[in-house]
Amino acid sequence: MSAPPFPRVTAPGRAPRRGLAVLAVLALLAPAVAHAAKVRGRVEGFRNLLNPVWADARDPKAHGYSFREQVPTVRAEFRRLFPHAPKEICVAALAATPQKATPPVLVRVGGGRTTPVTLVAPPGTRLTFQNTDPFKHRLYGVGINTFQPADTQRGGSRDWSVPGPGTFEIRDELAPSLRMWVIGEPTVAAIAYPSMKGDFGLTVETPGDYVVQAFFAGKKVGPAIPVKVDLADVDLSKSPLKVGDEKAAAAADKAEAEKAKASDQAPKEGGAK
Amino acid sequence: MLLSRFWYVVLALLLGAGFFLLNIASSMFNRAGQLSLAQGLASDVQVVSWYLRDDARQRAAQLIPFALDPDMAKNLQRSSDSDSRVPGDARAKLTEVLKRVSAQIPKELAFDSLFAVDQHGRVVASFGYQASSEDFELGGYPVVADALHGYVRDDTLVLDRPYRVVARPVEYDLAAAPAGAIVGARVVDDRFARELSQRTGAAIAFYAHGQRTAAAAPEGFTVANLDQIVGDLADLDQDKEYKEKGRSAVRVIGTLLSVQYTRLPGEAWQLGAGYAVARAPAAVSGPFGFFGKADDKDKKAGNLIIAILLVIVFGGAGIGFSVLEHTRPLRLFKTEVGKLAAGAIEQLTPSHFRGIYRKIASDLNDGVDAILAKGGGPRRGPADFKEVLGDLPDQPQMSAFSLPGDSAPGEPVSDPSSPSQPPRGLPNAPSRPMPGPPGGRRPRPSPQAPDVAPVGDATMPEGGLAAWGSGDPDEAEWRGVFNDFVALKQQCGEATDGFTYEKFEANLRKSRERLTQHHGAKRVKFSVYVKEGRAALKANPIKE
Known about the structure:
The complex is a heterodimer. In chain A, 20% of the residues lie in helices and 36% in strands. By secondary structure, chain A is of the alpha+beta class.
């Protein structure tokens, strides 16, 4: 149902040592975890969002294909290039005060994207990028001096720490479709990724007042929902996070349809004419 | 001479015209070659582009049997329904479906790799691709994402190497989102390039990340030449057309290769991957560059036999004119001059020569005569009777039958016994003997009259005066004239065979009678001279 919290670093080469370190962290946090509360909720309207990478790629001017045609049996609502929520929409519980850096986070690099695609983490959090593809990647941070392009071979990994507050975009010189957004948020207390149906569950360790906010493609989407966390679990299902507007999406679809119609009159090939 | 000079002009004109035409031809050939090359390359690029698109469509059509397979849709849906992990049996069943259906695909449209992808983007099953882990996924690529959202399309991915990829959705429940997608990939390798080259006739090389990844060329084109594009790829980013439109202008690498680059559609476009279509430039370096470019067929069209015949005819004509107008006259002149030098002849005969040689011979003779007249050498001309003997009497002073020694002293006839007084005009140096009478016999001086003038002796037959017999009063004089005339004819190179005194005397007699009647002269004096290189006789009527 709910997505796991920060993925833990279990890089194959360093699994035993790193596993022990994670266990040590968990042991230190054990009393708090024991009293952690679950905040369950639901994300609505994420099918009204548009994955920016795929949206760019469908533009004929991007020369991303020589032909691209609809399969008529697929309903129009599913043809919208909505994001894959379990990887791309990050739901964060933001506290009123800055939080400690979390344990290292494993980011899988493979299949033309990262997992997760959107990540909210306190500054100083170390990210470990692990290459799961059978070929190398060359990741870099857009405008980030501390993350210059460098090869990550098959099965290899690369570390990088969130330098501070703000939004950071990670790209791959060898895979144009790979774009990841890291939001440095000092007050983030917990994050979760919704399921395909939009359900999510946040594990908040410390009781207090929080706001639940969804992030997508480096930006906040939808309104934040305030939540007071005590020892008991909280269910926000009745007031879901609305991350996408149906009317706006319909308008976007209409514009896209007109654009596609216009492009049908032009040569269809995305490549050289 | 005129023919030779004309021939030289003709040859010079032909040579100049030939060189000029060759230069024009090479320039026109190069220009036409460049135009043809550009058109050919553009055509090749277009054909390759069409082929790639058509190939992608045909391969996409081959994915339909996978998408329609019920086991495929069912198991992909099962996998998509599981957020956490892929059901193990779904992997096995989908792998079996991939193998079963791919076996039915025509060989020329077969895929190198096939992937069954669920809604999460996870590769549930694959065929022909060695994934690095079970978590291998493809969901981030736009081509797969599009398929998962209901589109069929192609792409070119540059992973470990370039792949031509097609994908289409797999539907299980038409009321729901597609259960997954089926993705087919074709490696862009030498085999792919070879197939493409065979079907399009183009020499083609694929490149990615600044390296050539695959190449193939039709027969007659060296594939290794396509390696030269590697050095040119670095400069390709400066090609504005290539950056904006994805197709470069025609670029010439070295002198061996003309290339046009085109970006591959898909993600490869952004990565600078593409293909180069190449042709060998059809250009010659100069007028003689045609020889290097011509193949056997061209050489056959060159009409070598006609060319050789032209060389023979024109060369032979030139040599013939040269021999006719230069060699032969020169050789003749050389021979005659040799005779003159050897003393075989007394002077050159201008009538034997033509053109300038005739003038040279005449001038040479005049020059020799002038030298002799100045005493620079023996006189080679015939003796002037008047100069030698002084004024002759109107009537001969001696009988035609008298002996030279019978003439009485004190008569007006010069004393033949006083040879110490050489005639005017004769040099003191011993002169050459006068030419003999016809037949080559030279009359010897009579031993009885050694002091008789050589001229008189020269006309004396060996039998003495007894051999003279016409009885004409002028016979003695005419004999002398006859001898002079014969000698002069020989000097002029004229034939004297059959020329007898009797005929000569008959002619003189007729002339004397005609002149005496016509002019009322008492007698006619004959003398010899050279007229236009020939011996001539001059008649002088005397009225005293």
